Structures are given as C-alpha cells and as structure tokens.
Amino acid sequence: MPVFNPKLEWLRQKRSGRARPNLYLVGFMGTGKSTMGRGAALALGFEFIDSDKEIEKAHGRSIKDIFATDGEAAFRAMEREFVENGHPANGCVVSTGGGLVTPPGMVELLRSKGVVIGLFASIETILERTARNDKRPLLNTDDRETRVRDLLALREPIYRSAGPCITSDHRDIREVVAHVVRVYKQEADRWKPQAEGESPPAGA
Predict the structure, then answer these.
(1) Class of residue 15 by CB neighbours under 10 A (exposed 0-12, middle 13-18, buried 19+)
(2) Lowest mean per-residue pLDDT among 31-45, 135-149, 156-170
(3) Which residue pairs, CB below 8 angstroms and at least 24 apart, start in 44-50?
(4) Percent of the chain with pLDDT over 70
C-alpha cells in the first residue's frame, strides 16, 4: 500500500483548486480576532472556530475555571492539543486565545498547519473592548492597564514574528476583514505543508 505523503496530497489539491489552508488569527485579547475571524470565514466560505470555545466544549468547563483549578500550564497544554488534533486540517478560520502562541514552538506549529496573521490594537482600545468581560482570568486584577502593558511587552514580539500584521484600531470592521482576506489569499498561494520546526517560505 502506498505511503500517504501530505505534501504530495497538498500539491494535488492545489492543482485541482481544492487546497484551502486554514487561517489562524493571533493577537492579544480585544484585538478583534473573533469579530474579524467570523467576517473572514463568511467571505472565504470557511468554517469559523474559536479555540477557547472549543477547549471549553471539549473539557466541559470554562476557561476561567480551568485556570483556577488546573493552572495556566495545563490550559496551554490543552491549547496545543487543540492545534494538533482538535479541528479540521483545511477550510477553517481559527480565532486563537491571546496566549496560545506564547509557549516555545507554538508559532512554528501554527505555521505548519496554515496561514498565520496577527491582529493588533492600541492599549486604550484593548482596555475599552475588554472592560466588561470578566471571563479573561489574566485580566482579573485591580490594575488592568498595568497588567495589559506587562503582557503586551512579553507577547507583542511573538505576535509580530508569527506572520503578517494588521491593525484593527479605529477601522471599520468591513475594511479590516477585507484586508485579512486579501492577505490570506496572498499567503495561501505560497503556503505549503511543512514539518513542525521547518523554516517557513521566504517572506512569510
């Protein structure tokens, strides 16, 4: 029996016009990943998936409860399991949790699965968008602004290294969605399956 080769299968699908790599939106909480992700999925004819909601569904608990009971390290392991095995391999727009790409190797893992785009917003916008949401355990603190600044200082370089960067600050949703779709199509044309840890194509 012939051995299945994912790269050859990808090339075969690409020639037939059926190859549609996943789109992963990364970025800090409140940058618009879910809103833009739903819009992009509709425009592309893809399925929209929110990684946090899928993890909650799979484990029967809220993210807040997982953090409180099991700790952040356990949640990060759940995120990795979701990326590796918890969603379809093609035709999805995935809104990822704000810290999903922070553990070593996660950016490379996402790149091995599809196109990665980073969304950004100002601290002021992030604070405004997350002000009424108490389901974000890392922001459950008296000084939310300092917490956001500290987390952004650690995470922003990772987001910027993950893929093309798009800001959602003070822009119409339709404009941002159109930009996301345009960048995705450009990146998808040159994307190909690669082993975890393998260097991405030049310019990615």
Answers:
(1) exposed
(2) 135-149
(3) 44/20, 44/93, 44/181, 44/184, 45/91, 46/20, 46/91, 46/92, 46/93, 47/88, 47/91, 47/92, 47/93, 48/92, 48/93, 48/95, 49/87, 49/92, 49/93, 49/94, 49/95, 50/94, 50/95
(4) 80
pLDDT score, position 34: 94
Please list the residues that pair with 49 across neighbouring strands.
94
Angle at 134 between CA 128 and CA 136, to 5 degrees: 85
Share the mean pLDDT of the chain.
85
Give the Cα-Cα-Cα angle 32, 38, 43 (nearest 5 degrees): 120
Judged by DSSP in three states, 72 sits in helix
What is the C-alpha radius of gyration for the chain, rounded to an integer number of angstroms? 17
> What are φ and ψ of residue 23, in 5° steps?
-115, 125
User: Are the beta carbons of 112 and 193 closer than 8 angstroms?
Assistant: yes
Find where tokens 């949640």 sit. Answer: 75
Model-level pTM greater than 0.90? no
pLDDT tens by residue, 37-88: 999 999 999 999 999 999 999 999 998 899 889 999 999 999 999 999 999 9
CA angle, 101 as apex, 99 and 105 as ends, to 5°? 140
